[in-house]
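From the shared-data thread, chain only:
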Amino acid sequence: MTRRFAAPLASAFLLVALVGNARGAAIVDVTVGNAFFSPQTVNIQVGDTVRWTNNTTSFHSVTDDHNDFEKPASSGPWTFSHTYSTPGSFGYHCSVHGFVGGGMSGTVVVGGVVSQPGILRFSQPSYSANENAGTATITVQRIDGDDGAVSIDYAVSAGTATAGADFPATTGTLSWADNDDTSKSFAVTIVNDALAESTETHLRSAA
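Structure, as tokens:
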């Protein structure tokens, strides 16, 4: 007898987008002090965001040296964010306490590497295993990028197969290190109950 592991149509070809700290776009914080930005220089990648926070009672601005953007001068508390979409070195200053290249000023250095954390997917839409085989091995691939460490939780739920009778509860986590794009697998145990049964299904799920 064969038991088939099948995903419902909506997830027959499961894709899981990896964002945030996978490494996706990052948010880098800069403190606006009474007469300084800290850190004065930050290093980020294309697509990252710098977020300035002023909790002082002093009037400060965040003014790009080339007037591409500006947070007008005001007292705190306030936050201001800007996302950098091109590589290069970008200076900024406080229009009240600084000037281009001096006084209360800072620099954002943007690298040209576009982060590609990739996506996770099942290597095939369905799996089958003979009851006497003991296990069904399910494989997950990481494709289209390998930046950053990522992980995915998985769980197997009942379809026409019966949880506990035809297979035990199966959950776990698959993890990939930075620069790791190898396939990862997990096994689902098939219970050999010696009963004559038709083909049965599990539903695979992942989060």
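Confidence is low (pLDDT under 50) at residues 1-23, 198-207.
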